[in-house]
Design brief:
By secondary structure, the chain is mainly beta. It has a single domain, classed as Cupredoxins -  blue copper proteins (Immunoglobulin-like, Sandwich), CATH 2.60.40. It has a six-stranded mixed β-sheet, with no helix packed on it. 20% of the residues are buried.
């Protein structure tokens, strides 16, 4: 009886995998860069067009000193960190701009290009 129940359950499980439904259940892939819990500082380089996009999340801890090195190899730019009201100022093509700050506020904060208004990534600050 045990073998029969296992076989029936396996058949039911396998038959549900072959659904012919036309709905798209695709989930966008999220890329996460995370700070270590023991580090008091966190440094990350953002290269616009390479390791950027709305699904790129940079995880840091509240109280950490965060350094974001920003470079756009394609054109001049200006990058803004919402919620912290920080900006790189005008940066030329291939020039590196540096934003260093203490992550005092928790939550998700958009990092955005002023030139293209594109969401470059999200800074996620969590309590330690």
């Amino acid at each position: 009886m045990k073998k029969l129940c296992v076989a029936v359950l396996a058949t039911i499980a396998l038959s549900s995998c072959g659904s012919t439904s036309s709905s798209d259940n695709t989930v966008a892939e999220t890329s996460t860069v995370a700070a270590t819990k023991t580090s008091k500082t966190f440094e990350h380089t953002i290269t616009v067009g390479k390791n950027t996009g709305p699904n790129v999340v940079i995880d840091v801890l509240q109280g950490q000193e965060v350094t974001l090195n920003v470079v756009n190899p394609s054109s001049h730019d200006e990058v803004h960190l919402h919620g912290y009201d920080l900006t790189t100022g005008a940066i030329e093509k291939d020039e590196i701009a540096i934003m260093t700050f203490i992550a005092t506020k928790t939550g998700d904060f958009e990092i955005e290009s002023h030139e293209t208004e594109e969401l470059i990534s999200v800074l996620r600050v969590t309590a330690p």
